């Protein structure tokens, strides 16, 4: 058991274990203290029978020692954490190595990037505070931004805050105007999309919130849930055929939160409420270009304050998860509207976003206090199952679509980080989303804060105040 040829080094007891398919016989192995990741990885491949004449390629492994990725030798870790104790066995978990992300280009946008989705392989969906949504093809992939398949303007000047894909080639974007706008795309084929008569139009305008939309999530069928700063979650069932009438009347004179001065002046002058600049509630055939106005099927109330993030359960079609500024993570029954799960963390821990590990159902929530908290909602006794100390507020998070352990975070410090939750003390990788310019084309100043990240298991994308979409090749498993 000496693949590296190390001789004369003292032996230390090590318990090697894994939660992957590469398990070796359970035993306490006596291993030279000067061994590092390479020698340990070589040992496991030898026990598994990989390499050599077996015809099976060796698998590179990383090692986590009591929650910390092994960066040096076992001896160095032992001296730093155990002192002179060389008799107690060290528990070492091993996992297949995650390759570092490789830069695949920057795509310049005209304004802040507020939302991203790579849920449809081969495309990037981008929402912007310039109040439009773009569908960009990944065919070219690297270099300059490709010609958009579609640019979908929202009928408001107030900005889009988030976006997502829906069934039947539909996309949706939440807005500062308190509505979610749903568009139908004629085709995702570049040749057909470029046809002169192939234009996308807004099909539905989903109403019901009294504050800007913070997050939207698509259901397994023709369903959509939206969360907002008003503290409520709305669930919409979209009809299979285009309707012929509105469910909600136009209301161009309602007020957005924070416009107390406008309301007071209207009352003093006796003029009544006036239309809000940038807020254009119209009808499907009007000049505003809005779709058929729809009312929510269900309204979910329970959060005490703003709702930061929303995700539809990957396995249970009747379950919606939300994370709020009140520090709580809640599970909702999408059929009855009941709040069936409540996990209350510290009330001053504002949760800004949430994502879910598909294999395990565990939730990961990014917060304003510069941490990512892990929530095992399927264990009744668990509140916060783990914490990753990111170092900056986390407005967006994306769990790997197939891995049960890796996730990506976007931070206000402008860094994109990849984490393995089995090693919570340090990120596996961190890449900077450095702006390549000081101003956008329309002259707006740029900042470093990231606002959105998404990951499809092959391509990692992030964007924010610097007005660019950054792309990386990253497998993450």
From TrEMBL:
Primary residence: nucleus
Keywords of this entry: Nucleus, Repeat, Ribosome biogenesis, rRNA processing, WD repeat
Domain of life (superkingdom): Eukaryota
Similarity annotation: Belongs to the WD repeat WDR12/YTM1 family.
Gene Ontology cellular component annotations, sorted alphabetically: nucleolus; nucleoplasm; preribosome, large subunit precursor
Localisation per UniProt entry: Nucleus, Nucleolus; Nucleus, Nucleoplasm
Region (Disordered): 240-290
Name of the featured protein: Ribosome biogenesis protein YTM1
Keyword rRNA processing in record: yes
Function: Component of the NOP7 complex, which is required for maturation of the 25S and 5.8S ribosomal RNAs and formation of the 60S ribosome.
A single GO molecular function term of this UniProt record: ribonucleoprotein complex binding
InterPro entries, A to Z: NLE, WD40/YVTN_repeat-like_dom_sf, WD40_PAC1, WD40_repeat_CS, WD40_repeat_dom_sf, WD40_rpt, WDR12/Ytm1
PANTHER family with a match to the protein in the record: RIBOSOME BIOGENESIS PROTEIN WDR12, WD40 REPEAT PROTEIN 12, 37
Domain called NLE: residue spans: 12-78
Quaternary context: Component of the NOP7 complex, composed of ERB1, NOP7 and YTM1. Within the NOP7 complex ERB1 appears to interact directly with NOP7 and YTM1. The NOP7 complex also associates with the 66S pre-ribosome.
WD repeat locations: 300-342, 363-385, 456-477
Any single biological process term in GO: maturation of 5.8S rRNA from tricistronic rRNA transcript (SSU-rRNA, 5.8S rRNA, LSU-rRNA)
């Amino acid at each position: 058991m000496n693949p590296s040829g190390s001789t004369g080094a003292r032996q230390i007891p090590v318990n090697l274990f894994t939660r992957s398919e590469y398990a070796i016989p359970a035993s306490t192995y006596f291993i030279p203290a000067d061994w590092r990741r390479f020698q340990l990885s070589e040992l496991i491949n030898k026990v598994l029978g990989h390499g050599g004449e077996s015809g099976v390629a060796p698998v590179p492994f990383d090692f986590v020692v009591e929650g910390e990725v092994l960066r040096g030798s076992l001896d160095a870790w032992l001296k730093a954490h155990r002192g002179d104790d060389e008799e107690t066995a060290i528990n070492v978990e091993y996992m297949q190595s995650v390759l570092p992300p490789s830069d695949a280009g920057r795509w310049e946008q005209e304004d802040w990037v507020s939302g991203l989705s790579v849920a449809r392989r081969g495309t990037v969906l981008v929402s912007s505070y310039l109040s439009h949504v773009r569908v960009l093809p990944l065919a070219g992939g690297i270099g300059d931004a490709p010609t958009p398949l579609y640019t979908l303007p929202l009928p408001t000047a107030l900005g889009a805050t988030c976006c997502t894909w829906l069934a039947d080639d539909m996309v949706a974007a939440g807005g500062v105007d308190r509505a979610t706008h749903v568009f139908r795309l004629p085709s995702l084929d570049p040749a057909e999309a470029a046809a002169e008569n192939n234009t996308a139009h807004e099909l539905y305008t989903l109403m019901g919130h009294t504050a800007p939309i913070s997050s939207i999530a698509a259901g397994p069928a023709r369903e959509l849930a939206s969360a907002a700063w008003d503290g409520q979650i709305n669930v919409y069932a979209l009809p299979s055929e285009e309707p012929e009438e509105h469910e909600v009347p136009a209301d161009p004179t309602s007020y957005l939160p924070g416009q107390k001065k406008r309301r007071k002046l209207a009352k003093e002058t006796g003029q009544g409420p006036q239309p809000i600049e940038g807020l254009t509630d119209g009808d499907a055939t009007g000049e505003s270009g809005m779709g058929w106005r729809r009312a929510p099927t269900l309204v979910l109330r329970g959060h005490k304050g703003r709702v930061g993030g929303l995700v539809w359960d990957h396995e249970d079609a009747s379950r919606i998860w939300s994370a709020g500024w009140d520090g709580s993570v809640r599970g909702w029954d999408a059929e009855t509207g009941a709040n069936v799960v409540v996990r209350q963390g510290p009330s001053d821990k504002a949760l800004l976003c949430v994502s879910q590990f598909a294999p395990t159902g565990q939730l990961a929530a990014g917060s304003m206090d510069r941490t990512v908290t892990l929530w095992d909602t399927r264990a009744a006794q668990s509140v916060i199952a783990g914490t990753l100390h990111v170092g900056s507020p986390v407005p967006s998070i994306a769990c790997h679509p197939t891995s049960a352990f890796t996730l990506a975070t976007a931070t206000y410090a402008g860094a994109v980080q990849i984490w393995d939750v089995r090693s919570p003390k340090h990120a596996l990788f961190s890449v900077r989303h450095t702006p390549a310019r000081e101003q956008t084309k329309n002259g707006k100043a740029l900042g470093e804060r990231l606002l959105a990240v998404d990951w499809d298991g092959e391509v990692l994308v992030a964007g924010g105040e610097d007005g660019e979409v950054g792309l990386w090749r990253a497998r993450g498993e």
